[in-house]
Amino acid sequence: MVEGRLVGARHRIDQYEPPASSIAHRVPETGSSVDPLRPYLVADDELARAGKSAEELLRRLVVLSGAHSCRSLSVGPPQSPQGQQSNSNLCDRSEPKWPKVQTALFVWSIQRWACMTQPVRIAVAGAGNRGQRYADLAMVDGRAQIVAVADPDCTRRDELADRHAVSTDRRFESWEALVDGPRIADAVVVATQDRLHYEPALAFLDGGYHLLLEKPIATTPEQCDRIVEAAERAGATFAVAHVLRYTPYTLTLKRLLDSDAIGDVVSVEHLEPIGWWHFAHSFVRGHWRREDESTFMLLAKCVHDIDWLSHVVGRPARRVSSFGGLHHFRADQRPADAADRCLDCVLQQSCPYSAPKIYLPCLGDRARERWPLHTVTSDLTVEGVLSALQNGPYGRCVYACDNDVVDHQVVSIEYEGGVTASFTATAFTGFEFRKTKLFGTHGCIEGDGTVLDLLDFRTGQRERIPMPTVDMPEGLEGHGGGDAGLVRAFVNALVSGDPAAHLPDPRQALAAHHLTWAAEQARLTASVIDLFGADRP
Ligand SMILES: NC(=O)c1ccc[n+]([C@@H]2O[C@H](COP(=O)([O-])OP(=O)(O)OC[C@H]3O[C@@H](n4cnc5c(N)ncnc54)[C@H](O)[C@@H]3O)[C@@H](O)[C@H]2O)c1
User: Which end of the chain has fewer CB within 10 Å, C or N?
Assistant: First the structure.
């Protein structure tokens, strides 16, 4: 039996080609595309091309397809009506019973019908860096439409609204103005700053909107609880922007782990290399530099790493400890000759954090103009950038800012069953993908966000696991495809009306938030926090 949409069969649906702009996953063995929204049927000629048995190919597809619903992609021998395992080959021509094919065709027809009807209407509250990105990604395959934008910054509001042809009466000065009117969208993306998640999230849920909420859910544990409870009460489709879960890399890794590739996972080592200039941009000069204006660094930056770890380990956390602090970006580290502003500073050449060195080279690079440069100024010229650095917060000396969040932190987590994880977030790295080592009873995996190297103890063999390639519009590749994956999963959930098939239970995101608070409490009190004990935050 092949569960869900990835169904093994002798016929291939080719009446309907996905739109060229669709983000589909290309499977190297067959050269064909797998779109999680549509049933995938394995054809004879594909098997011949791949030189594999149906079962081998399907196992490959499960790992490589990049579909968003792991639970709908398990592969195994057909199940007899009595629940007994059958030995029949998945592609055996004499095998007449393919009840899943009919089901898949039915699901496909419904989905196709849904695709051909009105697109999902999405409103954006907060047309900043993240809101703009999600809006553009939602439009990619034509299944969604941006119908309203709310942001007090008229430049950003109009920029996004113009790009999506949003009528002037649907451009709002605040999320309050949007939610106060009649409901004009099916769903809303809330991408305001951290301390402005709670009120809009609750208001939109109360107003009957489905919700894609930027992380962190909110900035107190109680607020997070209330938002998740409100989403459950409303029966809303609710996605938290834990984008790391949605990368082809993570989907591949998770399938490897679920297919017993390294036996039982015993421990994990995970690094978030924030990057020297990124840290200076966001956590010294930028929005997330002060806890009282946003939140603590681990919640602002790493709650999705903590969520990711729980996701790959697949067990609830039991205990946590943590250490870290603000080591470098302090007045007492300031070189004697440094000026308060980088443009006035004689150390521009030698200082790694010099603002013109960070921002001027972004000009002309579409992705870097979009981020980080667009946060600094919307005037994307040399003069515009220099003016922003001369007058704005991003031109300040990193040793003369009002920042207080930590620049390095380690977290140790013990999960149920004694499985352990260590996590490090640090400013003092290149700007790179996260790096992870997973140690299992029968093998280990080392991943750098782009490739996974597997050592199988049973055979002694090493294997480099290829990632599915994902076609993505230029400038929207953020988080290794995770931004696109999240938006696609959200739209899939809305189109199908089956959020559980495309999105994780929001309670998992909530658990990650509670674990992150526990870690911070452990750091501040130099203690070990028992998540099931009285000291749970
Ligand atoms: N998931 C991720 O990987 C990830 C990455 C970066 C940031 N984030 C989170 O995304 C959120 C947004 O970050 P950003 O970088 O896009 O910030 P941003 O400052 O670029 O955008 C926020 C926008 O909200 C607007 N805003 C302020 N008040 C408003 C109101 N009353 N109504 C409507 N809009 C209002 C601002 O004008 C601004 O344009 C933050 O919570 C941040 O922590 C998540």
Answer: C
